[in-house]
Amino acid sequence: MRDIxxxxxQGVFRARKWTGDLVGLVLPDIHIPAHDWKKLNLVLACARTxxxxxxxxxxxxxxxSALGKWAADSPGTVEGERMVDDFSHAxxxxxxxxxxxxxxxxxxxxxxxEGNHEQRIQRLCDRIxxxxxxxxxxxxxAFDDLGISWVPSFSExxxxxxxxxGTTIRSRMLSRNDWTSGEGIGYIxxxxxxQHHAKAHAEKYGRAQPLIYGHTHDVQTYTSHAFGHPRPYTxxxxxxxxxxxxxxxxSERWQSAFALVYQSADAPGVWDIEIVRIAEDAKGNSHFxxxxxxxxTRGGVRG
Length: 303
Hints:
This protein is α/β, with parallel strands linked by helices. It has one domain: Purple Acid Phosphatase, chain A, domain 2 (4-Layer Sandwich), CATH 3.60.21. The chain is 20% helix and 29% strand. The protein has 7 helices and 17 strands. It has helices at 37-47, 69-73, 83-101, 119-127, 137-140, 143-146, 197-205; strands at residues 2-6, 16-18, 22-27, 54-57, 109-113, 148-151, 159-165, 168-174, 184-187, 211-213, 219-223, 233-237, 256-263, 271-280, 286-290, 293-296, 300-302. The strands form 2 sheets. The protein has a 9-stranded mixed β-sheet. The longest helix is centred in the N-terminal third of the chain and has 19 residues, at 83-101. The radius of gyration is 19 Å and the shape is globular. The two termini are 33 Å apart.
């Protein structure tokens, strides 16, 4: 067996041993309790059939709508919402996610990135220091019990990246000054959300690696050539939440999706990203194709 997964100097990620290339499931923004359970259940059903080495949630796992600027202007929009209920829904999802991705590989590594919506907790504690130490999400959501690693992507501008180091693949958590050093596949929550956000991320942070992010709730990719090589490459993965939030009255631009990422252990620089778009038919049934199989909330799986 080859050791192709090594712990970082920070000791954040545990060492793993695999026998082949890495395959990962990447989930974008979920925004619990505004999550779309119908789509999530279908994605997790698909995940149970895959042998996965890792799975990443790109941030905005929770919405914390009551702590946002929309609620400050219109508190009636969050009347009756309770943080304890949000945490309960998050526990339920995390438990189902962990079980699903570990169905065929009990050692599948899990990572959750911090998004701008999670940072609302930090802003709350900045306003009311009395709350500090109470709402550290990895503790509240029992990440250690589920074997989930936390990446402070937004507040501390950390990138999770899987680098090739000789014949190994090493997981790293990098500060912003190191984002463009080395080569690998990088994961951040995302910063830009204009109509050209994939290009903006590529030009700013994607020069040394493919970069995958969430935040924008739509699917967009960008690539260009530099010195004859097809880099940078950036991809945003849409969302997995309900598409009709009160504060924007729905959005035609939003797209539901997730991704499978393949990274070769034997050939540094060889990788692929399969973006799986989730469609809805006229009756509200969700559909997608993944690895040659058709998944549907109406008819299960075919192929």
